[in-house]
Structures are given as C-alpha cells and as structure tokens.
Amino acid sequence: MNNTTNVMIVGVGGQGSLLASKLLGHVVMAKGYDVKVSEVHGMSQRGGSVVTYVRFGDKVYSPVIDKGEADYIISFEVLEAARYLPFLKKDGRIIVNSQEIDPMPVITGAADYPERLLDKMTELGIEVSAMDALALANEAGSPKAANIALMGRFSKFFDDITEDEWLKSIEACVPPKFLELNKKAFYLGRNS
Amino acid sequence: MKEIMLGNKAFARGLYEAGAEVVSSYPGTPSTEVTEEAAKFPEIYCEWAPNEKVAMETAFGASLAGKRSFCGMKHVGLNVAADPLFTISYTGVNAGMIICVADDPAMHSSQNEQDSRHYAIASKVPMLEPADSSESLEFTKLAYELSEQYDTPVIIKMCTRIAHSQSIVNTGERVVPPAKPYEKNIAKYVMMPGNAIKRHPIVEQRTLDLTEYAEKTPLNRIEEGKDNSIGIITSSTCYQYTKEALGDKYPVLKLGMVNPLPVEKIKSFARTVGKVVVIEELDPVIENHCKAIGIEVKGKELFSIMGEFSQSVVAKALGEPEKEGCTAIDKLPVRPPVMCAGCPHRGLFYTLSKNKLNVLGDIGCYTLGAVAPLSAVDMTLCMGASISSLHGFNKALGSEGEKNTVCVIGDSTFMHSGMTGLANVAYNQSNSTVIILDNSITGMTGHQQNPTTGFDIHGDPAGKIDLEALCHAMGFNRVAVVDPYDLAETERVIKEELATDEPSVIISRRPCALLKYVKHKPSLHVDTDKCKSCRACMKIGCPAISFKNNKAHVDNTLCVGCGVCQQLCKFDALLDKEGK
Ligand SMILES: Cc1ncc(C[n+]2csc(CCOP(=O)(O)OP(=O)(O)O)c2C)c(N)n1
Ligand code: SF4
Ligand code: SF4
After folding, report:
1. DSSP one-letter code for B326
2. Phi/psi at A33 (nearest 5 deg)?
3. What pLDDT is attached to residue A1?
4. Which of A70, A102, B117, B567 is the most buried (most CB within 10 A)?
5. Where do the domains of chain B lie, and which CATH numbers do they carry?
C-alpha cells in the first residue's frame, strides 16, 4: 500500500546480523528515508535461528515484516535462507552466503541437512545470488567481516545509494580499528 | 539531532535528557539495554542490583533523597519487585521515579507471557506505553513530570518489538531540574497502618485526577479515518500494525497512557463510529475497560489472547486480503538455541545426564541443559526456584530423593533469589545437594556483571561476594569446588556429595566461554583413521562437532579446544594441535 522496501537479514545467532542491519539502517536514514529495524536479542542469540527486519520508505509504521512482504532476504547461511521463503515476495530476491551450518537436530542425527537447497530455491523461480562471503571475509583479513561482504553484494541492487554513501555509513557504524578490514570486505562483496 | 535508535536506547536518552541521576536495575530481556545505555552517560549513576526488588527500592531511596531515579526490568521482574511497588504507590515520591517494565509477547526470551498492565491497575500506578523509539524518549521525559506532579511512581511499559526496534528520534539537551531536598515526613513515608490508611484515599483521588488527565492528554489521540463504520482503539505495536495494515481507512484512538484509561474520550470516540474494535496483544485490558463503561466492543473475539500480532494479523481480522509469499520448502530442520562451544555448563550437564540424576533447574544459559542430546534438566520455573524446590522435593521423598536429586543455579540467579532458598536448606536441614554454576557472569541476558564477579556495570573493580565463605557462614560444612571441564573429577565430587548425609554445595567454576579475558586453546581436529564412528563425542551436544562422511568432524571456526569431547573418545581420535 506504500513504497516501503522490506529487507530481512537472517542467519545463525552470533553471525553478526546486528552490524549488517545497523549499517543498512544508517545508510537509508542518511538518504532521508523513514526507517525501522527490528532485532533479536537474548535467548535466540545462542546459536539459534535469528531474523532482523529492516524496513524503509516515506513512512514506516510496523517494525516487522510479514509473510509475502520481503523484497530481499539477506542470509548468512543456506538453510536459514530457505526457512524464511514464505516471507519473500513472489518476485523477491535472495542474497545468500553459501556456508552451511548444521543445526543441533542434524548434529544429534535426528535430522539431515537438506540437500540442494540453493538449486531448489532457484527451481522455485526465485532470483538467488549465492556467494562465499566467508572466503571474501578471510581474504579481507577476518572471517568476522562476512556480514559486510554480504552487504557489499546486496549494495549492488540499490542504484540510488552510491558507493560513497555506503562507505560513509560503514565509517559511522564500525569501530576505527576494524574499518579498513570492513571496507575491504565490502568492496570484495560489491565486486563479486 | 536526528538519529536512528533502539527503543531501549531512546528510553535511556530520555532518562539522560530529563536529568535522571540514579539508575538501579536487574537485567532481563528485553529491558536490559535501557540500563546499559544509561550507563554510558557519566552524568547518571548506574548499577546492576542483585534483583528487581532491590533495584526498585534503591530507585525509591534516590527519589526520596531528591534525585530523579529509574529502575528497569522485564515483565517477570515486576513479580519480584511487586512488594515495594504496591506501597510506593501509597508513599508517592519526592523527585520523579520511573519504572520500566518490558513485556515479551510470543516469549522470545521468557518463561511466560504475562501482561504487565495488570500490575499498573492493581497497584494504582500510572502506566505509559510508547509505540516507537521517538515516543520512548518523549514519554520518559513526560513521565518524570507526571511523577512529580501527581506524586507517584510512573511505569513505562515496553515490549520486545518496541524495545528492540530502531527508529528515528530527535535528541535534545539534558536539563537537570533543581534538586528536591529530602524532608522527613513520617505521615507520608512510614507505611504503618495508621499512616497508610490515610494515604489510601490520596491514592484513590490521584487515580481520579489521572483519569481526568487521561481525557485531555495528547498521549491519547484520535486519528481521523475515511470510513467511520469501524473505529479502532489500540496502543503500542498494535497501533503500528493497524496503521501498516489499514493506513487511514478507519479512525483510530491511539492510547499512550494505558492506566488509568480515559472514560469520556472513549465514549465520545465510540459515538462517532459504527463498531468499536480493540486491538491489543495479550489480555483484554482495554476491552474489559470499555465493556465496564458500557461500550460495546469487539476484541478477543477477533484477536488471539496469546502471542504477538503483525500487520497481517490485523488485516486478516478486519477482512483485508492476505499476501502470499514464495512456496515453502518442506521439512526443514529447526535451529533451536544451544549452549556455545566450550560452554562450561556442558561438562556438568553431561555428568548429571550420564548419572541419570533428577535435576531441578533454574533460569539462565544452563536452562539449555534441558535440550537434546543432554536433556538433563527436569524442571525450571522462575529465578531461584531450583534450590527451594529441591528442598521441598527432598522433604517429600526423604532419602529416596536425596540420593539422586540435585539442583543447578547460576551465579547471578543465586545472588538474585537463590540465597534465601539456600537459607531454608540450612535452616530446615534437608540433605540437599546444591550445584552453583559459577561462570562469573550473567550470561543469558548478554553478559552483565553481578555481585560475585568483582566488577561493576562499567567493568571497573567492585565488591566481590565470596560464594564459599557465604555458604560456610550459612552453616554448610561441605562446600566443594570443581572444574566442569574435568569430567572425572566432577563426577566423583557429585557422587560423593550425594552420598553424604548432610547438605552440601558444589560450586562448578569456570568462566563463560564468551568472556573476553578467557584465553582459548586452538581447535581440535579428528584423526579419521582413529575415529570408529561410535558417536560417543556427540553425547554432549557441542555445536562444533558434527558427523561428516560417517566420521566425527570438528568445525575449527567454532571449537575453542575445551577438551570435554576428548574425554569421551575411547580411541583418542580427537586431537589438539600437537596431535595429543
Ligand atoms: C525475575 C527475573 N528477572 C530476570 C530474568 C532474566 N534472566 C534470565 S536468566 C538470567 C540470569 C542468568 O545468569 P546466571 O544465573 O548467572 O546464568 P548464566 O546465564 O550465566 O548461565 C536473567 C537475568 C528472569 N528470567 N526473571
Ligand atoms: S554465553 Fe557463556 S554461559 Fe552462556 S551458553 Fe555461551 S558459554 Fe555458556
Ligand atoms: S574441544 Fe570438543 S567439546 Fe570443546 S569446543 Fe571443541 S569440539 Fe566442542
């Protein structure tokens, strides 16, 4: 009913989704949009499935994204991207780190990690951009920067936000000590 | 300045701008960051108290002394602090006092889904309910004024989606109001029957005055709609969901003050619309109020009494079309939270589970000891309940229970409300075996200091309570300390303490694996020739170990080399960097 863009950032607790959502929130606010970011703290951060919602547009009311509303799902892990498919608009896009992390039922042998998930998503007609964000982050200097590498890739889908504007927001969101590392990871993601 | 801020941070900003000077809280998701953010302002004295009752009484003392004060807690924390709350309502305040209570509908991180509004009604204390970060900041400033004007503590009710959502706020300057010198006033502050009986009518009059305020205040505002066949009364997140789903289709009465609720404003709103629909999460508080003042409304007929709502929940209930997303892929394995790799609790729970003991549990990261494959915990209720329940269990079953039942309680939880349970064991002498899981931090809520850690909220050195000395002082002769990474020793001590015929305390001591000062060893690796695929190492549920190609596999990004799995492998297949 309005022009709001809905982005879900999903992954496994502890993977750094809070920094990714902070960065996106910052960059779109600087651009003059109204924005809401809904995060998960507490229990679910202990290695559970986590989801962060980022919504921006002229006027944003709800902090959450509902089934069939997400324009983008940015996922830090393959299974988690698949888990939130019902939230994705039919013409939505997935940007996913190709890393697979076994959840506890798989570790204990109660379940198997589903096979061919990336293919299955593509077969459903979804635009999937898969990337090895961990490898890019390692190349930049630390596996912890995988989140920013992923955001670099995501940034390519927004023509109206310039590279410079992204970099300014990275500067605002990342401690100076890790700035170079994260900038590098961002570039590697953006150019992947 | 325009900034994007977490609801809780905006709340803290409001405390700062309103000149708050003393903050005492106990952590609890989703309330914790209000206090953590307030602690970043050097102008505000901030502390973690041992529990919510202590925090509220500390804030009361500061208000009495003439400084604006604050205490924050999660919904269940208000159960603990209910005792002072109900009587601070009678005494009123000197300088303004705000209480934050954060509800958790859908139980993202909680053991129940209670609705805190009942406390505001029962204690006759006003309650404001912001709907985004900007209101969190503004309502906090206003709440201090109301507190001082009406001589009452004011509760601000948050919920997960307001507390943990960021939205845009406009920040302002800090203005500290003139101090209100402390004055002795026995009739106002000494709540013995003869004085309290005179305070009660003051409280009732205050509620009448505040109801009048509720009629006029812009906190409760009407937004026009295009179609008056329906009028919606709502607050907090439900207001946002309503606007998201319906825009300005129907008129909305948005309530920012949820106790006391207005009467005339609701009646006159109802007169302008066809049908009145109340949209509120959890209990029908606004709905019942409307019914009590003779307004016919629809509420829980259309909406659940449980869980969180969203824009589509509102849309569906009001007959709007639903959106459809991509097709789901079936049978995806769930991903529940787990204890971290190298968590000190894991070795202890493995030992309890191996010995098939009854384990009365408590609340913290170690509640995850109940999850497969450890499945070691039999019960968790509320903070502190482990020790007191063990005492009751053992009194009921005698030696039948005593020989194979223990309780587990974290260091923060023990300080919160475990000490009184332990006093009961010491006093009424059950032969109980109490295990304190001392990981030197309050882990579950995101690593806050507590009275046993030796550091304050800023991480600076502070008083440190000696657990062993405390237990000895209570009269326990048997106080043992074990390292839960050492499985054999842990098992030996637990068996020994269960076998003795006097009560004992076992302190399982090892700092949380996520603490910055903890030095980790390099990751282990698996010698796949030696690995006989027996899966013995899988019994501890470490997220770093999985099975790949029918052999154990250690994820070197997660493993912290704690060595617990090594002790389970009979074939020496799990090796450290040196190949040992
Ligand atoms: C009355 C109450 N206050 C606060 C909480 C939130 N809470 C859950 S667990 C916990 C403390 C856990 O710390 P600790 O006992 O040291 O165990 P750890 O998580 O470190 O293992 C807190 C504060 C709660 N559940 N109930
Ligand atoms: S945060 Fe610390 S105490 Fe909690 S599960 Fe992780 S290692 Fe264990
Ligand atoms: S040493 Fe074993 S139990 Fe400890 S973290 Fe590594 S894999 Fe997990």
Report:
1. P
2. -80, 155
3. 44
4. A70
5. 2-214 (3.40.50.970), 220-317 (3.40.50.920), 344-509 (3.40.50.970), 525-575 (3.30.70.20)
